[in-house]
Amino acid sequence: MIIIKNSQLSQDTVTALNAIIDLDIKAGEAFKLMRILKDLSSIIEDKTKLEKKIFEKYVERDSSGNPIEALDNEGKVIPNAVKITNTISFNKEMEELMEVNNTLNHDKLNFEDLNLNSNIKVKDLLKIDFLFN
User: Fold this and answer.
1) The dihedral sign for the CA sequence 10, 107, 39, 25
2) Which tens digit of pLDDT belongs to each residue from 16-33?
3) d(C-alpha 26, C-alpha 89), whole Å
4) pTM metric for this prediction
5) pLDDT (tens digit, 9 = 90+) per residue, 100-127?
6) Helices 11-21 and 27-58, packing angle to 10 deg
7) Would you say 41 and 14 are in contact if contact means Cβ atoms under 8 Å apart?
8) pLDDT of residue 16
9) How many Å apart are CA 109 and CA 39, to the nearest integer?
10) What is the 3-state secondary structure (H, E, C) of 12-24?
11) What local confidence, expressed as pLDDT, does residue 117 receive?
12) What is the DSSP secondary-structure string of 107-119?
């Protein structure tokens, strides 16, 4: 059984798993990874939907319904940032979402069983280290 927090899951997790599946690994291990990937994708999709819902709940909008851009201390627009109506509540809800544990009904894998014949990027392994004994 694999237990993983929402905070450990992102689209990068899926990308890292796909990178390993695409390598020359044993067919049985590739199958196991594909099954895990299917379950993780569903969890990540649900998590992303809830993140968007929380964001939409707290984003400050102008009279036209557009998000209001966040400003720094000098009054300059912060690129790709918006104003949040209640940062304390927003942060609390996001924190609660990130702390949720998910249980996957799969056994953890032994890294050695993958029998990797190619170099794998350490950054990819770090994103999925929760899968291994």
Assistant:
1) positive
2) 888 888 777 778 888 888
3) 47
4) 0.79
5) 999 999 998 887 787 765 667 788 888 8
6) 170
7) yes
8) 86
9) 15
10) HHHHHHHHHHCCC
11) 58
12) PPBPGGGG---S-
Q: Which residue has the tokens 């940062």?
A: 87
For the segment 40-74, what is each residue's pLDDT rounded down to a tens digit? 999 999 999 999 999 999 999 999 999 999 999 99
What are phi and psi for residue 51, nearest 5 degrees?
-60, -45
C-alpha dist (Å) from residue 119 to 16, 116, 122:
13, 7, 9
Question: How far, in Å, are 26, 32, 94, 129, 131 from residue 125 at the CA level?
Answer: 17, 16, 26, 6, 9
Q: What is the mean pLDDT of the chain?
A: 89
DSSP secondary structure letters along the chain = -EEEEGGG-SHHHHHHHHHHHTSS--HHHHHHHHHHHHHHHHHHHHHHHHHHHHHHHHB-B-TTSPBPEEE-TTSPEEEEEE-BS-HHHHHHHHHHHHH-EEEESSPPBPGGGG---S---HHHHHHTGGGB-
> Would you state the structure tokens that stand for residue 77, as one six-digit string?
């627009």
